[in-house]
Write a structure and sequence with these properties.
Layout lengths: L1 E2 L2 H21 L6 E7 L3 H17 L2 E7 L5 H13 L5 E4 L9 H7 L11 H9 L7 H12 L8 E5 L6 H9 L8 E5 L6 H5 L4 E4 L17 E4 L3 E4 L7 E4 L4 H4 L5 E2 L6 H21 L1
Parallel strand pairs: 1-11, 2-3, 2-4, 5-6, 5-7, 7-8, 8-11
Antiparallel strand pairs: 9-10
Helix pairs in contact: 1-10, 2-10, 6-7, 6-10
The protein binds guanine.
The site of guanine has 9 residues, from strand 4 and helix 6.
């Protein structure tokens, strides 16, 4: 079994980004600027946003965070999005999800200038992605494609099962893997909560992308020997034996499935670091267009 080292793969990609950022600055252009909007105090979101900030600084990307109270009105958030859309010093921004229930997520995402939508969530980017046109691709699926590329995992003609149909991961992932392109050309089955005979389907998979949002959902008896496992899940499980009071686990029963898999991502240290690296890459692409 080979452990897919997302941290190492992300470091390589970040090194390439840092080199390009340095070249921009050398040619008297300003550094790319990424902004994150964080509404409320969800602990996981706070960690994600601060990790994104640290990673930005490490590659020379300027980063700012707008921290808004959980009681912020939708109107106030729309005004901030509008302000950032118009700010020429900002190349890309993200609105960290989830948002408080009183805010309509769709309305917020639709109001972002798609050229600054480095999350790749705007309908314009999703539409272009479906059609195979150049666009901002959602960071987690893009990060997974980079992992497949780094580990030279063949997808052409393979049976790939994607577990979970979220707008952020499962749906775009299934489309990207089935496209006529490098690290596409797969026969993709998108499974979800209404899928019948799930085990029958997962047992035939050469590659499984688990993004179902349930801790250790995928068990060893659901996969065949030699399967490649990409685990997108990230769950905090209460654990009084750890200093933080919790440990992290994915959507996969790692300990048991690792005995059958040919390659597998750990949690943490698998998909997570690649998501951040892919976000930085999108920011660099946005900045190149914005400042050329
Ligand atoms: N919440 C969980 N993942 C993401 C992501 O990739 N982007 C944003 N904006 N919010 C998230």
């Amino acid at each position: 079994m080979i452990l897919i080292d997302g941290k190492k793969a992300a470091e390589k990609l970040k090194k390439e980004i840092a080199t390009e950022v340095a070249a921009m600055i050398d040619s008297n252009r300003r550094a790319p600027h990424l902004v994150a909007i964080l509404v409320g105090e969800d602990p996981a979101s706070q960690t994600y946003v601060s990790n994104k900030e640290k990673a930005s600084h490490a590659v020379g990307i300027t980063s700012s965070i707008y921290r808004l109270s959980a009681k912020t009105t939708e109107k106030k958030l729309l005004d901030l999005v509008d302000f950032l859309n118009k700010d020429e010093e900002v190349d890309g921004f993200i609105v960290q999800l989830p948002l408080p229930e009183h805010i309509n997520v769709e309305r917020i995402i639709n109001s972002i200038d798609y050229r600054k939508d480095v999350d790749g969530f705007h309908p314009m980017n999703v539409g272009k992605m479906v059609l195979g046109q150049p666009c901002m691709v959602s960071a987690t699926p893009q990060g997974i494609l980079y992992l497949l590329e780094t580990y030279k995992i063949e997808t052409k003609g393979k049976n790939i099962v994607v577990l979970g149909r979220s707008n952020i991961v499962g749906t775009p992932m299934s489309i990207l893997l089935s496209r006529k392109s490098d690290f596409g050309n797969a026969t993709v089955t998108l499974c979800h909560s209404r899928t019948e005979n799930l085990t029958e389907i997962t047992q035939k998979a050469d590659i499984i992308i688990a993004a179902i949002g349930q801790p250790e959902f995928l068990k060893a008896d659901m996969v065949k020997k030699g399967v490649v496992i990409i685990d997108v899940g990230m769950h905090r499980i209460e654990d009084e034996n750890t200093e933080k009071g919790y440990h992290l686990t994915g959507d996969v029963d790692f300990k048991e499935i690792a005995k059958k898999a040919s390659l597998i991502t750990p949690v943490p240290g698998g998909v997570g670091p690649m998501t951040i690296a892919a976000l930085l890459k999108n920011t660099l692409l946005a900045a190149k267009k914005n400042t050329q």
